[in-house]
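seq as requested:
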Amino acid sequence: MSGLISKDHRLPKILCLHGGGSSAAIFSIQTRKLRHALRNDFRFVFVDAPFECEAGPGVLPIFEGSGPFSEWLRDGQSEQQEAKQLEVVQAILDDVLQEQGPFAGVLGFSQGARIAAGLLLREEEQRLEDERTGICRDYLHFGVFLCGTFPAIQWSTPSPQSVSKSDVRRHDLVSTPTVHLHGSHDPWRMESKLLLARFFDPLHASVMDFSGGHNLPLLGSDTDKLAKLIMAVYRSGNDRNDPPPNPMDPKHLDEIKIRDL
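struct tokens:
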């Protein structure tokens, strides 16, 4: 795992998950323009996927010799093998969330977006359970999905599962504010759109299309637009996560008295 160290350690953190056949170090370079645009607003923590593999789309020849490359999930695995893989991924991310947290948001590219979607889906379930039990904890305030692929990972108990592409059922939608970036020439554009349509509440999802492929925007104007969308969903997520007022708080009581006058 590697992270961009900010001069201001009070800045909120974003958990960054790279695509398949890449690495935390490579993703840090690929996001350098976006990180620069948000340098006064966030810190970025990059995590390496656990399974070594060949270089993924768009990695070579630019990052020739920059391995090892890794992925979050291996294709062509049995359900049992995939379940074990997801348990490994879940353990890694849970350790990061606990040891490096709290995190304001999660950002995933390509295969990493599937993992990020799984984290937000899991939090939707956790919120419902916490509401029933009265537990208050830190949640992710927003998510950013860059050229995501399909489907989302399901980390429902007792064990994590991946939703089959051939047998997709409608699950509870993510209501956490999110940004979804789609490249007009991305070969996986339809998967990005399907990820959005099947797993995210459209009332809380902001979509940005740009003239590009399976990559982050190269134009400064596109990067600035994406940065502004991220700031907007961050603020929206903060409002959503604000705790309800304590009815016995003196300030709240004063407000009640003023309204009653």
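The chain has a mean pLDDT of 86.
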